[in-house]
Amino acid sequence: MAMPTEHRTPLLVLLGWLIAVPPCLAETQQLVVEVSGIRSAEGNVRVSLYREPDSFRKEDRAFRLLSQPAAAGKATLVFADLPAGRYAVMAYHDANGDEKLNLRLGMFPTEGYALSNNPKVIGPPRFDDSAFDLPGTPAPLSLPLKY
């Protein structure tokens, strides 16, 4: 039995809407980051989120940046409204509050730091070693600081 014409038009409009709308209403994700091993309440804990390999570890080029006053022990920071994608995270305890990861000889961190996936680092850390897909990341993302 054929469907009457007056019923087909709304059905076609609904079908067209269902096909066209999802990209516009793409779900955003939340990333909970748990930084542990903070030695003192001095300064801030800073967590930067990267989407591109060429910006990785360059805080001024981070996709997002969160900072909060440090507390000895653990800090939880939340990146909200993130589009699905591939990301990498770097966190550090900015103990002196100068808003940068201080380095000895230009390459060895003098403040506690951590990278997503906790890679073994020889030389500058690479985006690919720290990258993960969102959604798909366990919650929370655990980042133990290394001093």
Concise structural overview:
By secondary structure, this protein is mostly beta strands.
Strand content: 35-45%
Radius of gyration (CA) equals 21 Å
Q: Distance N terminus to C terminus?
A: 74 Å
Given as residue ranges, the uncertain stretches (5+ residues, pLDDT < 50) are 8-25
Number of strands: 10
* Main β sheet profile: 5 strands, antiparallel
Separate helix tally: 2
Q: Helicity level, as a percent range?
A: 10-25%
H/E topology pattern: HEEEEEEEEHEE
Mean pLDDT, as a whole number?
87
Topology:
Blueprint: H1 5-20, E1 29-38, E2 44-50, E3 64-69, E4 73-82, E5 85-94, E6 103-104, E7 108-109, E8 113-115, H2 127-130, E9 132-134, E10 141-144
Parallel strand pairs: 1-10
Antiparallel strand pairs: 1-4, 2-3, 2-5, 5-8, 5-9, 6-7
What does the model show?
With 147 residues, the protein is mostly beta strands. It has helices at residues 5-20, 127-130; strands spanning 29-38, 44-50, 64-69, 73-82, 85-94, 103-104, 108-109, 113-115, 132-134, 141-144. The strands form three sheets. Strands 2, 3, 5, 8 and 9 form a five-stranded antiparallel sheet that branches. Strands 4-1-10 form a three-stranded mixed sheet, with no helix packed on it. β6 (103-104) and β7 (108-109) form a beta hairpin. It is globular, with a radius of gyration of 21 Å. It starts with a helix and ends with a strand. Mean pLDDT is 87; it is low at 8-25.
